[in-house]
Amino acid sequence: MRTYWYISLNNKYPLPMKGQYKRVVMSVQMKAKYSVVEMTREATPVEIDHCKLVYCGYGLWKDDHIQKNIKKYV
């Protein structure tokens, strides 16, 4: 399944909104200074500002462009 990948610079990630039944955040890989967040949809501007998310790409984890963008911010 193709998903949206983000880097969270403050280790926060979007929580489910009220009335939302689908899971938005598929996985979070927590590190000391950042987190890698996998989402099923694009993040809203409010989520991007609150969680300090940086967009890394759309696709699978093993895709080269996603790995390259994650390494750029880590």
From TrEMBL:
Identification of the protein by name: Transposase
Organism listed in the record: Enterococcus hulanensis
